[in-house]
TrEMBL record:
Regions of compositional bias (Basic and acidic residues) in chain numbering: 293-303
Origin species: Oryzias latipes (Japanese rice fish)
Catalytic activity as recorded in UniProt: riboflavin(in) = riboflavin(out)
Protein localization: Cell membrane
Descriptive protein name: Riboflavin transporter
Gene Ontology CC terms: plasma membrane
Length: 488
C-alpha cells in the first residue's frame, strides 16, 4: 500500500466514523453532509468545507420557507393597502371595505372544509395538492384583477364592481385556506423552519405596504379652498372661509401595475413551494427528518402509556392559553386591524398613519426573527406578553373610539405614543403567535391544522364584531384630515 493510499484510507475512516458506517477499500463510504445548523460542528475530524455546504443548504431552505410564507396573505393585504386608489373609481366608494370584510368571512368556507376533512377523515386530505390549487388560483385571480378591477355591471339600476368583488372573494378563499394548509405542510421540515415561515407570513403584509409607499398611495396635500372655489355658483362662504380641501397626489404607477406585482409575488411563493418539495437539498433533509419523526412518534406512544405518571413540568404546555392568546392576535390581525388603524391614526395626521402602518408591518417579521433566536416558552412570560399586547390594543381601541379627537391629538407626543402602541401591539402578540405555533408543531400535524382554524375563527369574530360598530351604529367616526378642529 502506497503512502497516498494509506492517508486516503485514514481520511475516509474518520469521515465514515461520523457517518457510522464501516469503510471498505472498494467504495469507501457514502458521506452524508449535514443539512442543518445543529449538525454543523467543525472539528479536527469534520472538515469545515462540509459545514459550509450544510449551512448553505440550510440557508436555502430558510429562504424558501420565508418566500413560501409570504404567499399566505399577500393578496388580501395588498388589496387593503391599495384601497385608497381603488375606491376612487369603484361605484361603492368607501363602502367597499365593508363589502370586502364580509367577503373575507364568507371565504372561511375553505378552511372550514379542510378542518372538517382532518377531523372526520384524518389522513385522507393531502395538503400539497390543495396548496398547489389555491396558489395557482391566487396567481390567476390577481392577474385578472389587474385588468378587470374597474369593470362594473348594472344590477337593479345601480352600478356594481362585480368582477372586483368576485375576484376578491376568490383571493379571500386562497388566503383563508392557507392558514390551515401552509402550517401543516411545514410539519415536514425541521422545527426552526416554522419560525422562518412565520417571518415570511409577516412579510406578506410588509412587502405590499412598502410597494404601496413607493407607489404613493394615500399621499394627501391640504390646499386652500379658494384655489378650487366655484365663484360662478355663488359659493362665496366656502371661498372666503379659508377652508382647506384634501387633494390626493397622483400615484407613481397604476393600480393595474400593483396587481401585476401581487401576481408576481404569488408566483414567487409557488416557485418556493415547488422547490421545497423537489429541491435535492430539501428532499435529503426531509428524508432525514422522516426518520426523526418516526422516532418521535415511537417516543410519544411510549409516553402515552405512562402519561398519568408525568409531573406537570413534563406535560406539554397546551390548553386554554393557545385559544386565549392566538385568537385575539388573529382577530386584530385580519378582521379588526385595518379598521382600527385608520380611525386611531388618521386624526394624528397622514404621516402618523403611514408611519404606524409601515412600522406595524415591520414589527411582525421582526417578532418572528426574535422568536427564532430567543424562543422563550415560559407560560408566565407568554401570559405577560398577552396581557401587555391586549392592554396596548385596548388603548388603540379607545383612541379609535375617540376619533376624530383622540388624546394628545395636537402634540408630537400623542403621535409618538399611537405609533409606538401599534408597534408594541403587533410585536408582542406576533411573538406569542410564533411561540404557540412552535409548541403546537411539536404536538403533531393535527395541532397545526387546529392552530390555523383558531386563527381564522379569531379573524371571523373580530370582523363580525367590528362590522356593525363601524357600518351600522357608526361608533367610530373619521375626521377630515385637513379641516377637523379639536379643542386644545
Amino acid at each position: 500500500m502506497t503512502e497516498f493510499q494509506r492517508c486516503s484510507l485514514v481520511f475516509f475512516s474518520r469521515i465514515c466514523r461520523l457517518c457510522r458506517q464501516q469503510p471498505t477499500a472498494a467504495n469507501r463510504c457514502s458521506v452524508t453532509h449535514p443539512t442543518a445548523e445543529a449538525d454543523c460542528e467543525p472539528s479536527a475530524e469534520f472538515p469545515r468545507l462540509f459545514c459550509i455546504r450544510g449551512s448553505v443548504m440550510s440557508l436555502l431552505t430558510h429562504v424558501l420557507a420565508c418566500l413560501f410564507g409570504m404567499g399566505s396573505w399577500v393578496a388580501i393585504n395588498g388589496m387593503w393597502v391599495e384601497l385608497p386608489l381603488v375606491v376612487e373609481k369603484a361605484p361603492e366608494m368607501w363602502l367597499l371595505p365593508s363589502y370586502l370584510t364580509v367577503l373575507i368571512q364568507m371565504a372561511n368556507i375553505g378552511p372550514f372544509f379542510v378542518t372538517l376533512m382532518h377531523r372526520f377523515r384524518p389522513g385522507v386530505l393531502d395538503e400539497r395538492p390543495v396548496i398547489y390549487f389555491i396558489v395557482v388560483l391566487g396567481i390567476v385571480s390577481t392577474f385578472l384583477l389587474a385588468f378587470f378591477w374597474e369593470h362594473t355591471v348594472m344590477i337593479a339600476g345601480s352600478l356594481r364592481s362585480v368582477p372586483l368583488l368576485i375576484l376578491s372573494f376568490l383571493l379571500s378563499v386562497v388566503d383563508c385556506t392557507s392558514s390551515v394548509t401552509f402550517l401543516p405542510f411545514m410539519m415536514t421540515l425541521r422545527p426552526q423552519y416554522l419560525t422562518t415561515y412565520f417571518a415570511g407570513e409577516g412579510l406578506s403584509g410588509l412587502v405590499p405596504a412598502l410597494v404601496a409607499l413607493v407607489q404613493g398611495v394615500g399621499v394627501v396635500d391640504c390646499e386652500n379652498a379658494t384655489l378650487h372655489g366655484d365663484t360662478s355658483t355663488g359659493n362665496s362662504s366656502s371661498v372666503g372661509s379659508g377652508e382647506l380641501i384634501a387633494k390626493y397626489q397622483p400615484a407613481k404607477f397604476s393600480v393595474q401595475v400593483f396587481f401585476v406585482l401581487l401576481s408576481i409575488m404569488m408566483v414567487v411563493s409557488l416557485v418556493a413551494f415547488i422547490l421545497l418539495n423537489h429541491h435535492p437539498a430539501v428532499a435529503r433533509e426531509r428524508k432525514r427528518e422522516q426518520y426523526f419523526f418516526e422516532d418521535q412518534e415511537n417516543k410519544k406512544r411510549e409516553q402515552s402509556l405512562s402519561l398519568h405518571a408525568q409531573t406537570p413540568e413534563q406535560k406539554p404546555m397546551l390548553g386554554p392559553l393557545e385559544g386565549a392568546t392566538g385568537e385575539p392576535r388573529s382577530s386584530f390581525g385580519k378582521g379588526t386591524y385595518s379598521n382600527l388603524e385608520t380611525f386611531s391614526c388618521l386624526p394624528y395626521g397622514n404621516k402618523a398613519y403611514h408611519l404606524a402602518a409601515t412600522m406595524a408591518a415591520v414589527a411582525n417579521p421582526v417578532a418572528c426573527f426574535i422568536a427564532m433566536f430567543v424562543p422563550i416558552r415560559s407560560l408566565a412570560f407568554m401570559c405577560f406578553l398577552t396581557v401587555f399586547g391586549s392592554g396596548t390594543g385596548a388603548y388603540i381601541m379607545a383612541m379609535a373610539a375617540l376619533s376624530p379627537c383622540p388624546l394628545m391629538v395636537h402634540s408630537t407626543s400623542g403621535t409618538a405614543v399611537i405609533v409606538l402602541a401599534w408597534i408594541l401591539f403587533v410585536l408582542s402578540l406576533s411573538y406569542v403567535k410564533v411561540i404557540i405555533g412552535v409548541i403546537l408543531r411539536d404536538e403533531g400535524h393535527s395541532a397545526l391544522v387546529w392552530c390555523g382554524a383558531v386563527v381564522q375563527l379569531g379573524s371571523m369574530l373580530g370582523a363580525l364584531s367590528m362590522f356593525p360598530l363601524v357600518s351600522v351604529y357608526g361608533l367610530f367616526k373619521s375626521g377630515d384630515v385637513c379641516n377637523t378642529r379639536c379643542p386644545s
